[in-house]
Give the backbone structure.
Amino acid sequence: MADITPPVGTGPLAKREARLAWGLLFPTITAVALVVVLPLLAIFWISFKPVELGDLRAPEVVLREDLRGGPEVAGDEATIRYRLRNSSQEQQITGVTFNDVIPEGLQVVELDPRCTLDDRALSCDLGDWEPGLRDTLTIPVIVGQAYFDNDLRPQDSAAITTGASSNILTNSTFTLDNFKRIFNSDEFFEVLWVTLFYTVFGTIGALLVGLFAALLLNKSFKGQGILRGLYLFPYVAPIIAVAFAWLILFDPFSGSANALLIQMGVTDEAINFFGERPLALIMVTVFEIWRYFPLSFLFILARMQSIDTDMYEAADMDGASPFQQFWYLSMPQLLGILSVLFLLRFIWTFNKFDDIFLLTGGNAGTRTLTVNVYEQAFAVSNIGAGAAVAVVIFGCLLTFSLFFLKYISREEGL
């Protein structure tokens, strides 16, 4: 008799379970999309737009209103003045209008041809405005006693302005100039090389120092807990505090490090550790290693303590040296966690901005891609170019991650 049982996963119950699963996952997917995907798409969008820092705010009609003439008694003449301008120096505003209410007690003597008055409601149609255009409307009035009795001012009723303009962030204007500006610059490849040097040596150094620290504290001894806590200090301390501590320590004029080197006869004059090439790049890399090795230390130590000690006892009985025990027993067990740590630390270090910015500001040959994003977007006020550099960073990290997961992790059995 033929088996008529429906395939697994195609029955009504399986479909209901799938819908329930997607329903439960929907809040998480939405949160990820809002927090990660949408900003990433926005960066890609802006990278192809000719947008500067001043373009983030849409053009608008700026209006200032006051009463000129200084009236003191009823019957005095005065002038309501409206000063208007286009806030943008590059974009046009079309269909500019504004509406206001003339305060009670002010009798309009003459109107501007572009304006109409309905009772006390003032409406003005100013047409299309070119970039940076300024205009002034003056309306002569006679001041009545009601104006003084009510203690009114023209600016008490806010004028409402309208106008349409093209927002560079949402219109259909796209360009490749941002990427051309990046790749046609000779300094881009220098910045890329600095980023790779800082990332590769900072990542490998943090792993090696963390591994060495884990080997030191893998044995039980008195004061072990205190020493482990001290090892964590660089990672948990506020970045701004440790960065300025290093700057003071290695200051060429008053730093303790220079004073010690001069007294020991290592150097005849003070060394500007964070102001000379290529020493500044080496110093920020050493700072990266010192600050972030505790993270590697924690993970490696936890993995080492989970390894069965029977293997080491058997190896010791067979006459294996400590190095042989580490290389042939510990390392195969640590390759998995070392691979994961290398991937994470590489990505985090590649994206690192605050350390270098606080130590050198990107000067003396320490400008990385992330610092370049800041300089393009805010120092030069070119948001589009800054977003383009961010896209390049994303491309580099995506390429590295795919290569790592496809080849390196396969060899490690991850």
In short: The domain at 177-412 is CATH 1.10.3720.10 (MetI-like fold). The CA atoms of residues 249 and 256 lie 5 Å apart. The chain has a mean pLDDT of 86. The beta strands are 61-68, 77-86, 93-101, 106-108, 115-118, 121-129, 134-143, 160-165.
